[in-house]
Write a structure and sequence with these properties.
Helix content: 10-25%
Strand order of the largest sheet: 3-2-1-7-18
Radius of gyration: 22 Å
Largest sheet: 5 strands, parallel
Number of strands: 24
Strand content: 25-35%
Low-confidence stretches: 1-8, 370-374, 379-387
Distance between the termini: 41 Å
Oligomer: single chain
Number of helices: 8
Structural class: alpha/beta
Length: 391
């Protein structure tokens, strides 16, 4: 048996976990169940841990009304229930793998001296960050990405200052028609806004076959969505006479009506800059490279979640892909804790089964994304069941 922790069960170690949402929080809870003597330190950028990111559009739209439902755990509950040292608003700015220590800054008081935290085992569950291309005007007021509860609260606060409920509906632009984009379309319409969607790909929901995406698109148009596909954003401009509204200029030369709110759902990328600087191997798109045990190329350093590459069990062989979903991240976090304590558990990959609601339709897929990159061809079976399920 190949034991990824040859030093035994490792009881009483200091386990430092960077990232406290899905993979990180799951690893911390599992490690505590395995070892009551371990010192577990959970470092999280921002004030919230273990939150339900999939529910954020539905809180913005008012389907979820209790903000407390957005938190699976809180810093306080993790401390009291699992005796975990949770440090929120803490960003890791350096990893020294030779000295086995991380350096952190307090995000609320960045002028304070950096704190250096030693570790016996380091778990990287840093997640992904919204992709913000260098488009002129992308940092204008009223333009929001949606990564965490702080972003969610900022969007809700912005909406509170818009004249909703009247005859003249404010206009919003959703840039990108992936998961976040199509969910935000429905929820912003629910709040009383008119919506334009801009997607640079020739269809919405890129993983769907074109014929299936067409069904979703027709449904969106029937609801009154102004859908623009196959075009990209060239510039965000201030609206004449209204600095808080934005004109979206497209590369085709067309412009959209002034937007009182713009959602940036242009995709995500792994938040791994500091990790690469530490000499931890990452792939060409920045994802952390791990083995079947979730171990990196550096001893006693593990990784889980959106920022890693995992096996593609459909393609097989050495094919890997990145799957930014909470389910696999939670499993990976628990598996890392088991392997720290010598259980020799392997992650066999994920099929990336996904589902998203688009008004009364539900689109789902479990496919090889971008199969052409693997130089293979797979016949896919499509089915369209009833008027509400698309799979």
């Amino acid at each position: 048996m190949n034991n990824p922790n040859p030093n035994g069960t490792g009881r009483g170690q200091r386990i430092v976990i960077v990232g406290g949402v899905a993979g990180g929080a799951s690893c911390a809870a599992r490690a505590r169940r395995l070892d009551e003597t371990a010192e577990i330190i959970l470092l999280q950028s921002g004030p919230d841990v273990s939150f339900a990111s999939c529910g954020m559009p539905y809180f913005i739209g008012g389907e979820i009304t209790d903000r407390n439902q957005m938190a699976v755990q809180t810093p306080g509950s993790l401390r009291s229930r699992f005796n975990i040292d949770v440090r929120v608003n803490t960003r890791v700015v350096n990893i020294n793998t030779e000295d086995k220590a991380v350096s952190t800054i307090n995000e609320t008081q960045p002028s304070l001296e950096r704190e250096v935290i030693a570790y016996d085992q380091l778990v990287l569950a840093v997640g992904s960050e919204p992709l913000k291309p260098p488009i002129p005007g992308i940092n204008r007021p009223g333009l929001f990405a949606l990564r965490n509860l702080e972003d969610m609260d900022s969007i809700v606060a912005w909406l509170a200052n818009l004249p909703l409920g009247g005859a003249d509906k404010p206009h919003a632009v959703v840039a990108g028609a992936g998961f976040v984009g199509v969910e935000m379309v429905e929820q912003l319409m629910r709040r009383g806004l008119e919506i334009s969607v801009v997607e640079m790909l020739p269809q919405v929901l890129g993983p769907l076959d074109m014929e299936m995406a067409a069904i979703v698109e027709e449904n969106m148009k029937a609801k009154g969505v102004n859908l623009v596909t196959g075009d990209a954003i060239q510039e965000f401009l201030p609206a004449e006479g209204d600095e808080r509204s934005t004109i979206v200029k497209l590369k085709s030369g067309n412009t959209l009506p002034p937007a009182a709110l713009t959602i940036l759902g242009m995709g995500v990328r792994p938040d791994t800059k500091v990790i690469k600087e530490a000499g931890i191997d990452c792939g060409p798109r920045g994802h952390i490279i791990v083995d079947d045990h979730m171990h990196t190329n550096v001893k006693d350093v593990w990784a889980a979640g959106d920022a890693i590459e995992v096996k593609n069990p459909v393609v097989g062989g050495d094919a890997k892909w990145a799957v930014p979903l909470a389910g696999p991240a939670n499993r990976q976090g628990r598996l890392i804790a088991d392997n720290i304590y010598g259980m020799d558990r392997k992650f066999k990959g994920t099929y990336a089964a996904s589902v998203v609601r688009v008004f009364e339709l539900v689109a789902a897929w479990c496919v090889v994304l971008f199969a052409e990159t693997y130089e293979v061809t797979y016949p896919l079976t499509l089915c369209f069941s009833s008027k509400s399920v698309l799979a």
